[in-house]
Amino acid sequence: MLKIENLHAGVDGTDILKGLNLEVKSGEVHAIMGPNGSGKSTLGHVLAGRPGYNVTAGSATLLGQNLLEMETENRARLGLFLAFQYPVEIPGVSNMEFLKAAVDAQREHRGEPPIDAVTFMKKARETCKIVDLDPAFLKRGVNEGFSGGEKKRNELMQMILLEPRLAILDETDSGLDIDALQVVARGVNAMRSENRAFVMVTHYQRLLDYIEPDHVHVLADGRIVRSGDKSLALELEARGYAWLEEEVA
Amino acid sequence: MSDFMQQALDSAAASSPPWLQDWQRAGRQRWNASPLPGRKTEHWKYSSLQSLQQSFARAEPGDVELAAAGIDLPDFDGPRLVFINGYYSPLQSACELPEGVSIVRFADADEEQSRRIRAHLGLATGRDEPLFTALNDAALAEGVFLEFAPGARLSQPVHVVWVSANQAQAFSINQRLLVLCGESSSASVIEHFAGGIGGQRSFTNGVTELLLQAGATLCHYRLQLEQEAALHIGRVQARLATNATLNSFHLALGSELKRVDLVVDFCGEGGHCEVNGVYLPRGREHIDYHTCIEHRVPNCTSSETFRGIVGDDATAVFNGRIHIHRDAQKTRAELNNRNLLTSTRAEVNTKPELEIYADDVQCAHGATVAQLDEQALHYLRSRGVSRTEGEVMLSFGFINEVIESVRSAALRDYLQPMLASRFARDPALVGQAS
Amino acid sequence: MSQEHIDRAINREYAAGFVSAIDSDTLAPGLDEEVIQFISQKKGEPDWLLEWRLEAYRGFRQMEEPKWAHVHYPPIDLNAVSYYSSPRSMKDGPKSLDEVDPQLLETYAKLGIPLHEQEMLAGVAVDAVFDSVSVATTFRGKLAEAGVIFCPISEAVHSHPELVRKYLGSVVPRKDNYYAALNSAVFSDGSFVYIPRGVRCPMELSTYFRINEARTGQFERTLIIADEGSHVSYLEGCTAPMRDENQLHAAVVELVALDGAQIKYSTVQNWYPGDAQGRGGIYNFVTKRGVAHRDAKISWTQVETGSAVTWKYPSCILRGDNSVGEFYSVALTNNFQQADTGTKMIHLGKNTRSTIISKGISAGDSSNAYRGLVRMSPKATGARNYTQCDSLLIGHRCAAHTFPYIESRNPSAVVEHEATTSKVSDDQLYLCQQRGLDAEKAVSMIVNGFCKEVFKELPMEFAVEAGKLLEVSLEGSVG
Questions:
Q1: Does any domain span residue B286?
Q2: What number of C-beta contacts closer than 8 Å exist between A and B?
Q3: Nearest-by-CA chain B residue for C413
Q4: Does A touch C (3+ CB pairs < 8 Å)?
Q5: CA distance C453 to C329
Q6: Between residues 418 and 477 of chain C, which touch chain B (CB distance below 8 Å)?
Q7: Chain segment C164-204, per-residue pLDDT in tens
Q8: Residues 27 to 66 of A: which have CB under 8 A from any B CB?
Q9: What domains can be seen in chain A, in order of their start residue?
Q10: Contact (CB<8Å) C414/B368
Q11: Distance from C79 to chain B by nearest Cα, in Å?
């Protein structure tokens, strides 16, 4: 589904990813771990097409299509979803309006007519329940005045509504208490399917207790330096990252 | 003084009630004695009065049916007064007044009513009134005195509509609205200016006086929706007694020249005012808001937000002054002005001002001129929304935050779809500069 | 805290208020073309400069005194001012410090500005201007090695006429404004600096201005040219004796930062502010402006504690692409002082950036206004400005104002302006006092904290001086 080869990318001329390779197959859950500054978040932003992130070499394809040449919105319509670590606040634009515009954009891309407002409202309210968010949030500005946990749950809600093929969760676990973490895990686990893949970027193994990964990768200095199964995450938890970095150096 | 108004003034004098004639004379004297301000006058630095340099006749009653199109608020059955070119239009008006409200047109006032009008007229504008208020006095023939009885609590706003309808030659309209809110009353007034598409230039000089007695609460909405050739110079002058609360809302879509001065005078302690405004000039339009919050007494609070989107060759001017007088201790005042420029030819001139003569106060102001937030746009796009649609959403969202402050549901329901569709179809108001 | 405390804290004496008993040549008061010819002749100026002055004077006569500033003072009689005063012993100009009148040196020593090179803080070269005349410039030898020219402008007219002629009036035109035109007509002396291409000036350059003589005006003119890729940091300090009458100071400073050059200009202005009743003090009407060419940077830092009336807007014309302008200001007014000060950032080039940090402190019966202009021209694509203006009020009779003009004509330019006003809160004072600080110390500490963002921009020696100066200026303000 997702294939990344020798990806070099960075911000403002500073290289952050330095030859990253990764393949994610449909139905799989991958965890990418690594110390701060290793390039974990950069990977998600480069794939999503954030302005200011430049690719200097390598390739990345999703469902056989070259992601790097596409506009951000077309990547999303193809089925790429990035749950942001720090979702931006957009006062004045209501959540409801925003969600419907996003869902309709996906439907249009698939040649479907826009969803009618009543059906969508109902669906949105149900989704609110799943992610444990008060439906009153739908009327408020996008992420406006949301707490950290509420923002993360709002990201999850968008993921459920947009039904992506590939979801990248960028440190979705950071700043969450245990209850919220379980809500996120429940949401993700409910969405796991043969047609969908997940890449979870995380610093801690905690999240992996709730969402069991098929593969775990360690990112250091812009490259994947080790891959394994979930036992690798436990080893990292026990020993930290330093030994790996030394080994690689 | 240039004589571009003389014709209109002469005919106004001929048709007004006798008890107003002293008032007119005094206004006319002041008007004639003062030169028209030029760019060297600080408060007219960025707005040229060049377009007034022609002769304006007094307005004639226009085509009633045509003129009144598009002024209905959805699901609104409150009282409505409609004036077309300054003439009262009973056909378009609905004057079933709820208890606690009285409305008198100056032209109809009986002796008792005219005495009451004279007792309050000019109280808010004061003696050192500005030039265009003097002109308004000089032409004072038609005006409305709206009174809310002490203790009255109204659920529906009073909708006052001023329409300029086309006529063969350039014309001027002078309007006056005098609102008296009795002690502890609570009410809303929507002042709605419309019309002006095509045809000759019109010049509207609208003065609104708001007198809030102790404990009164008033929501005043002033919509300047006249288009194109409709020039407008307006003034809203509010005077707040002890514990009064004013919610003041302004919306201006463009025309060649729109200038509105808002002055809020705190005359009793414990007052509060909230001022919100939106301006959206495009084409060659020019919109200028000057606001001044006079904190004359202690323990009052004010909060002000203006936002504008300026496209094409348009110009916006904002001057927001907070004046805290000596001894107006414990004042809290804040002001915020944000602007989006969407064209390389558009221009914004903004000046938030603080003038402070008391120490135990908390004041802050801020102003920005910028583009749409790239991060927010990216967020929208990362969810599959196209750049264009994202720009429409963000631009509308930028002003919608202010529109949300409108408390009247009927008005909100009128404005939001109207503005949303305007943003969806007007490239000048959205998006990055061409 | 009690009013008494505050009053005591504000009302300390002006430490630089002594008069030096120096025999001087002072021109009789009055202003006409003959006076200008006299000044020019006295300095042995070339014809072009005399003509330049006369042209400025003719322009000046057509101009009106600006009235827009938020300051009030009785009309100034320009014919009651003497336009030239020179210590008599300086007639032929000192060739070295040994030739300078010992009493002059003593004056500067009293001000804490020792001119003897061996006593200097390492790395600061000083030009001292006494009334209208430059009396001594230190470290000239060492500067010359680096190719840096640092001398009185009256000397530069003779030694480097090509530079003076090219740049004089190039940033502040002769008829720019009323006071600039007056200065152009009658300027007496001031400093001239030229930093050659690629040179990083080996030490801080510094000028101390001193008005001594009664009924004189001081009209110095400073011109700094930083050639391509060069760096210079320049400091300026000012004091004057205590006198009951007001004295006029109308200076012009021009900065030229050519491609890639950087000029840092720091001022500690402590002209005599007048007494506690508002008698006397300097009228400080100054035009300061710099032009930054491509990739150049001009940074103004000012600490304004003196003068009865200040009217001063050090500005940057960001002409070249990627050029940078900065303005860091602390303005403190006490008693009956009035200040109307701020900056203009004129963004002409692409990706130009400017930062304005202004801290105004008003105490006593004083009035303190920030006035600024940020202009984004149609060509200033990608330009940025950030402005922050904070005012602190001490006592209930003072006033603080903010008048920021923002004009934008480029949609990709971003302008952000923020302003706040606050007072030294009772809670803050209570906390300090409860921890054993007296009220004066507490206020001065709080004020210093308030100004920290600006002080950190000052060169070290100045930062210490500025902190002390604030403390002195605030004395008696606590109540």
A1: no
A2: 83
A3: B370
A4: no
A5: 9
A6: 418-423
A7: 999 999 999 999 999 999 999 999 888 899 999 999 998 88
A8: 48-51
A9: 2-248 (3.40.50.300)
A10: yes
A11: 29
Other beta carbons within 10 angstroms of residue A30's beta carbon come to 21
User: Which positions in chain A touch B384 (Cβ < 8 Å)?
Assistant: 73, 76-77, 102, 105-106, 109, 162
Instruction: Inspect the interface and report whether the beta carbons of A73 and B385 lie closer than 8 Å.
Output: yes
pLDDT tens digits, residue range B358-411? Answer: 999 999 999 999 988 889 999 999 999 999 999 999 999 999 999 999 999 999
Residue A109 sits at the chain B interface (C-beta within 8 Å): yes
- C16: pLDDT confidence band, cut at 50, 70 and 90? low
Tens-place pLDDT, residues B284-303: 999 999 999 999 999 999 99
Our count of domains for chain B comes to 2
Which residues of chain B are under the pLDDT cut of 50? 1-2, 432-434
Decide: A188 and A198 in contact? Cβ < 8 Å: yes
Interchain proximity B387–A162, CB inside 8 Å: no
Could you say which of B268, B284, B314 is where a domain stops?
Answer: B268
- Of C347, C358, C409, which Cα lies nearest the Cα of C383? C347
C72 touches chain B (CB under 8 A): no
Query: Which chain A residues are within 8 Å of B383, Cβ to Cβ?
Result: 73, 76, 81, 98, 102, 105, 158, 162
CA triple A242-A244-A247, angle to 5 deg: 110
Enclosing domain of residue B243: 6-268
**pLDDT tier at A191, thresholds 50, 70, 90:** very high
Q: What is the DSSP string of B285-315?
A: -EEEEEEEEEE-SSS-EEEEEEEEEE-TT-E
Residue B350 lies in a domain: no
Whether C119 has a pLDDT exceeding 50, the answer reads: no
- Domain membership flag for residue B304: no
Regarding whether B242 and B103 lie in a shared domain, the answer is yes
Indicate the residue among B221, B249, B268 that finishes a domain: B268
User: B379, B388, B393, B400: which to substitute to probe chain A, counting the most A Cβ within 10 Å?
Assistant: B379
Tell me the whole-structure pTM to 2 decimals: 0.87
State the distance between the two ends of chain B, measured CA to CA, in whole angstroms: 42
Contact (Cβ atoms closer than 8 angstroms) between residue C179 and residue C186: no
User: Which residue in the block uniquely carries the two structure tokens 């009451």?
Assistant: B116
Residue A117 touches partner B, C-beta closer than 8 Å: no
Report if residue B57 sits inside a domain.
Answer: yes
User: Residue C12 corresponds to which tokens in the numbers above?
Assistant: 């300390």
Pairing of strands C221-226, C133-137: unpaired
